[in-house]
Design a protein that fits this description.
Structural class: alpha/beta
Distance between the termini: 17 Å
Order of helices and strands: EEEHHEHEHEEHE
Pfam family, one: Lipase_GDSL
Keywords: Glycoprotein, Signal
Shape: globular
Bound molecules: 2-acetamido-2-deoxy-beta-D-glucopyranose
Protein name: GDSL esterase/lipase
Number of domains: 2
Number of strands: 8
Helix content: 10-25%
Organism: Stephania japonica
GO molecular function, one term: hydrolase activity, acting on ester bonds
Strand order of the largest sheet: 4-3-1-2-5-8
Number of helices: 5
């Protein structure tokens, strides 16, 4: 075990990588395995960095955030993201965006999502131990891709035939998948579904809190996938 630190740091890169700084002895329970999370990535993991640099972003407008925070926080969903559910499960506070961080105290971690690539290099330089890459979401099934590459041949679509919100976006401006570039969620001319938790897709590109919760639970239940020795997968 290479780490000299007595702390364990879970580092998430969405889409989607874990960085773990392992301690000399890791107790089996996940709850006590990590004391901080450092998150990198894109809009799947951003908890507010983008809107701090671009106050015109739709992520800073309703209905983003309506399910959990009751206000837009810059998260690209109606509520919490995978990184939020993982933090909750580990007993760590929800990560503040790096750009909004008032102090230099990153004891519980911080979210660099948006600025991922260079920050990642820095971390490797500091000796981050383990990188875990579970992969990207199946974005080919997102309402936006299905709309851009639509087909009249029903056989080209999922034969299991999700018809009640499996592929349609909860928040959008019409069309077969409720995804319309002229009426995007948060901008104008869009409608929001009654019950986002019955949808997978929130805005045609990003997922609902309910879907992110499902993913987070899967990752937590399969935490044995997270290696605890130095490696890059
Ligand atoms: C966004 O920021 C610009 C530049 O600081 C400012 O002029 C503008 O009023 C802001 N817009 C909103 C909606 O806050
Ligand atoms: C997409 O949005 C535009 C602008 O609101 C609207 O005119 C158009 O009818 C919408 N398309 C569909 C398929 O609903």
């Amino acid at each position: 075990m290479a780490s000299s630190s007595s702390f364990l740091r879970l580092i998430l890169l969405f889409s989607s990588t874990f960085f773990i700084k392992a301690a000399t002895t890791a107790p089996p329970s996940l709850q006590h395995r990590f004391t901080s999370i450092f998150s990198f990535g894109d809009s799947l993991a951003d908890t507010g960095n983008l809107i701090l640099t671009d106050n015109t972003s739709r992520l800073g407008r309703p209905p983003y955030g309506e399910t959990y925070f009751y206000r837009p926080t810059g998260r690209a969903s109606d509520g919490r993201l995978v990184v939020d559910f993982i933090a909750e499960a580990l007993g760590i506070p929800l990560l503040s965006p790096y750009l909004g961080h008032k102090s230099k105290d990153f004891n519980k971690g911080v979210n660099f999502a948006v600025a991922g690539a260079t920050a990642l290099d820095t971390l490797i330089g500091y000796g981050a131990a383990t990188l875990f890459v579970p992969g990207n979401l199946p974005i080919g099934c997102s309402a936006s891709y299905l709309s851009f590459f639509s087909s009249n041949n029903k056989g080209n679509y999922d034969p299991s035939g999700f018809s009640k919100g499996g592929l349609r976006a909860c928040c959008g401006g019409g069309g077969p998948y409720n995804y319309n570039t002229s009426a995007a969620c948060g901008i104008q001319g869009f409608t929001v579904c009654e019950d986002p938790s019955s949808y997978i897709s929130w805005d045609g590109m990003h997922l609902t809190e309910a879907a992110y919760k499902w993913i987070a639970n899967f990752l937590l239940q399969h935490s044995s996938l997270i290696p605890d020795h130095i490696s890059i997968l």
